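Sequence, structure tokens passed on for absentees:
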Amino acid sequence: MADIFREIDEEVRRDKAAALWKKYGNVFIALAVVAVAAVAGWQFWQARERQAAQAVGAKLEAALKSSRDGEGAQAETMLTELAASGPAGYRQIARFRLAAEIGKRDPAAAVAAFDALANDATLAPLYRDLAWLRSGMLRTDLSPYAEVKTVLEPLATPQGVWRHSAREFLGIAALKADMFEEAGRWFDAIVTDPQSPQVLRQRTDLYLALVRGGPVATKN
């Protein structure tokens, strides 16, 4: 008897399944087609994105190679194109690299380019501060110490990510201005910071020797 009832139950299930398929079979097929198409579309989009990223990456690498090979004009042209039309991450990299490339021929123009990056509210604070750092570094050869200090001192705080480089260039700018006490203050901040890189500490020993030497008297 149990076998008979089991067979009847299976027959009922098959009949129900057949009825459901007859009624909704086209819907099931359509849903399957849509699902397959969605997966295929997603995979196609990912492939296109990878190809596009690879192409942009290759263009950036070509620009950097041109820079290394001394072909500054060509590097600037490629970086300008990437800065204008590349994906967001590449645009940011290209803008920084372009400003650095400009600095090789026109430091004052590079300062303006880095200042533009530093004032770009769409950039993360970390990168805006990096732009200020690069601007301040260039200013050490172009501007009075007071201007360099205005740009770099906010980066030289004990928690500043870029504090090591900011302190070094503040000290260099002060040295260039014969402000030896001020220079010593910045170099001492490097020495007393336990997180200062070792190579920077070694350079700072040389700077401090210059500070202790004071102004060099010249004979007429």
User: Anything to note?
Assistant: Confidence is low (pLDDT under 50) at residues 1-5, 216-220. DSSP finds nine helices and no strands in the chain. The CA atoms of residues 29 and 151 lie 66 Å apart.
